[in-house]
Sequence to fold (126 residues):
Amino acid sequence: MSDFYDRILDIAREFMDREDELPPFRSPTQLHQQIDLRLKPEGRSVDEVLHNLREVMLATPSSSSHRFLNQLFGGREEVAVGAEMLAAVANTSMYTYKAGAVQILIENEVVARLASIVGYESYEGI
Fold:
């Protein structure tokens, strides 16, 4: 499995290394012809999946560039990206303390901080 994750990280690095560049414009028809998006009943091999993921990332404009400014976001915070990746790897459900443990405590800290920012003296979870 390590080789798979190495290859995924290579795709992510390639995407992040070009985040200030726009991919060449391709129409939906061109993209559909260049990337095999069909849902095959038999599934796909790991190599096919990785190839398609790379093609998807190459066709995706980066909204994480510091040149991309939106009313909601602009740029990328490495710590946030890393934490998001590890959260996906942990695949933790947070519906009970038994399943979520420390993530529940983190959520409680965030909710407490947000409540204090807006002046709430009493509050509950999200």
